[in-house]
Amino acid sequence: MKEAIMLASLLALPPLAHAQGMSGMSMGGAKSGMAAGQGAAAMPPKNISVQDCWIRLLPGSAPSAGYFTIENSGDQPVSLAGAHADAFGMAMLHETHKDSKGVMGMSAVHDVPVPAKGRLAFAPGGYHVMLEKPARPLHVGDKVALTLVFGGGQALTTQCEARSPAGAAK
After folding, report:
1. Residue in 61, 79, 63, 69 with CA at minimum distance from that of residue 25
2. CA Rg, the chain, in Å?
3. Beta partners for 166?
4. CB-based contacts of 134: which residues, under 8 Å, 6+ apart?
5. Residue 106: closest CA among 114, 92, 96
6. So what's the pLDDT on residue 169?
7. How far apart are CA 71 and CA 67, in angstroms?
8. Which pTM value belongs to this model?
9. For residues 59 and 11, is the Cβ–Cβ distance under 8 A?
10. HEC readout, the chain
11. Which residues contact 56 (CB under 8 A, 6 or more apart)?
């Protein structure tokens, strides 16, 4: 509970609500570590770009979170199906949500649609990539490669800047 309260305060969620959300977090079928289509050199998706990628670093072994904006300039929607980062042992797509009682929590998601001719922001309080089990200590300012895997196994790698929780909002 103490770790959940610390993590909740750093993620700017109500402590008890976040602790409850974590204990009931659905992890079934979550993508972790190796994502679909990662083995062979995957073709990058056409008409997809990623901007402003950053990772909120948390102390010790607490999970970090990755945020970015995906832009789809194509005529067809695409689906973000997973993520991986060599700097972390586990990467999962998550969504923060509020239940009918106003309690904040998060759950794993299996794919996230990116609309045709549209943008999708992964931002605090919404979608994010949950990054767990750091492979090495990371420091503010470090660059971390994050590979996003889309439907059909297409992948796009972007560089993310590690930021402290206090300096995360730039």
Report:
1. 63
2. 15
3. none
4. 61, 64, 87, 88, 89
5. 96
6. 56
7. 13
8. 0.74
9. no
10. CHHHHHHHHHCCCCHHHHHHHHHCCCCCCCCCCCCCCCCCCCCCCCCEEEEEEEEECCCCCCCEEEEEEEEECCCCCEEEEEEECCCEEEEEEEEEEECCCCCEEEEECCCEEECCCEEEEECCCCEEEEEEEECCCCCCCCEEEEEEEEHHHCEEEEEEEEECCCCCCC
11. 10, 11, 64, 65, 66, 67, 124, 163, 164, 165, 168
Mean pLDDT by 10 residues, the chain (170 residues): 39 35 33 40 81 91 93 95 95 93 91 96 95 92 96 93 77
Q: In terms of residues, how long is the chain? A: 170
Q: Amino acid letter at 106?
A: M
Identity at 31, one-letter amino acid code: K
